[in-house]
């Protein structure tokens, strides 16, 4: 694997899931693989899970991780080519990415979308500038439109919580939020569930919240949340802002929040969320604190996903 930006960078999703699960059984079996190798972790936005789980994963492989909060501690970056840099940006990504490529064997980066310019976000302008100039493999720590480490984790979490011969019914439901959030997590979840191919996949959201079909693919879209949730085995909860009315909040209806009552017609569904989650806005306390929530072990699995990805890149270098 030469980079990890999207499910399409992965030769086999089921195989990568198996590698991650094998690291969960035996975290230190490749503790020499990353010896004398360094991972750069560049953040333009906040993070708890991605940052810490990837650092632990690197450590398990014997690799050194160096974290750089470039938004706060670096020079302000210019991302556009050919500009006269007489404004607020001090350093061009051409130099910044190339220099970091000199220091690290793998460069990982978090860069959220601006949610103002759909084309700029959906061409993944920022992460692609890093890929173009870094000269080393690049791993996404969540980019403008995708969050592959989260989605790999989510597939692992569904697989380890499913023991039946039939496919699980996985329902991704939109939920309310106070802020306009990226579509990266839901796009990515849809892309990975489709690529995995081992679930019956339904997406439910208010009208106007349709995701880019490039990611939602052949998932069933059901606008009635109660209908969608009926007989669900897994409920994946996430807010996102509108893709169609780009970056805007077009629904605030609190009735979309996940409560115990919403789950009553499911198959005692397991409830998932990437975190951080706004309690009693997105998911009610009674659900997050109840037996159906698997959000904590889900977040725990972030380590194994990151370890599988780093190991595959190290092996192909
Ligand atoms: N990395 C996981 C999710 C990150 C981001 N959530 C947020 O920004 C939540 C912020 C808040 O609740 O204030 C998102 O939805 O893409
Ligand atoms: N789920 C997730 O990516 O969390 P952080 O934003 O805290 O890294």
Tell me the number of strands. 11
Bound molecules: N~2~-(3-carboxypropanoyl)-L-ornithine, phosphoric acid mono(formamide)ester
Main beta sheet strand tally, sense and closure? 5 strands, parallel
Alpha-beta classification = alpha/beta
- From the alpha carbons, calculate the radius of gyration and give it in angstroms: 19 Å
Assembly of the depicted chains: single chain
Strand/helix succession = HEHEHEEHEHHEHEHEHEHEEHHH
Q: What form results from the Cα inertia axes?
A: globular
**How much is the average pLDDT?**
98
Q: What is the CATH architecture annotation of the largest domain?
A: 3-Layer(aba) Sandwich
**Annotated CATH topology of the largest domain:** Rossmann fold
Q: Beta-strand percentage?
A: 5-15%
Identify low-pLDDT runs: none
Number of helices: 13
Count of domain modules: 2
Quickly name the level 1 CATH class of the largest domain.
Answer: Alpha Beta
Please give the order of strands in the largest beta sheet: 9-8-7-10-11
State the fourth-level CATH superfamily of the largest domain: Aspartate/ornithine carbamoyltransferase
* End-to-end gap: 8 Å
Keywords:
Asp_carbamoyltransf_Asp/Orn-bd, Asp/Orn_carbamoylTrfase_sf, 14% strand, ArgF'-like, 11 strands, 13 helices, 2 domains, binds phosphoric acid mono(formamide)ester, Rossmann fold, 317 residues, amino-acid biosynthesis, alpha/beta, binds N~2~-(3-carboxypropanoyl)-L-ornithine
């Amino acid at each position: 694997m030469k980079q990890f930006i999207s499910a399409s960078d992965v030769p086999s999703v089921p195989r990568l899931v198996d590698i991650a699960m094998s690291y969960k059984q035996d975290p230190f079996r490749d503790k020499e693989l990353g010896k004398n190798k360094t991972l750069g972790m560049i953040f333009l936005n906040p993070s708890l899970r991605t940052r810490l789980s990837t650092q632990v994963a690197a450590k398990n492989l014997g690799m050194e991780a160096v974290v750089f909060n470039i938004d706060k501690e670096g020079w302000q970056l210019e991302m556009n080519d050919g500009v006269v840099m007489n404004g607020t940006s001090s350093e061009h990504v051409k130099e910044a990415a190339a220099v970091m490529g000199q220091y690290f064997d793998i460069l990982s980066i978090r860069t959220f979308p601006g949610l103002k310019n759909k084309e700029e976000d959906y061409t993944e302008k920022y992460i692609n500038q890093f890929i173009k100039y870094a000269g080393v493999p690049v791993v996404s720590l969540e980019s403008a439109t995708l969050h592959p480490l989260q989605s790999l984790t989510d597939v692992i979490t569904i697989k380890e919580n499913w023991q039946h011969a039939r496919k699980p019914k996985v329902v991704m439901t939109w939920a309310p939020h106070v802020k306009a959030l990226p579509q990266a997590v839901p796009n990515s979840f849809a892309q990975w569930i489709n690529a995995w191919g081992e679930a019956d996949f339904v997406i439910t959201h208010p009208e106007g919240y349709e995701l880019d079909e490039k990611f939602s693919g052949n998932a069933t879209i059901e606008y009635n949340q109660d209908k969608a949730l009926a007989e669900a085995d897994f409920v994946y909860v996430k807010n996102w802002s509108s893709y169609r009315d780009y970056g805007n909040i077009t629904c605030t209806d609190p009735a979309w929040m996940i409560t115990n009552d919403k789950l009553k017609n499911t198959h005692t569904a397991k409830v998932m969320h990437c975190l951080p989650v706004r309690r009693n806005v997105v998911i009610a306390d009674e659900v997050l604190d109840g037996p159906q929530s698997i959000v904590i072990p889900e977040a725990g699995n972030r380590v194994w996903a990151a370890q599988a990805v780093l190991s595959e890149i190290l092996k192909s270098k």
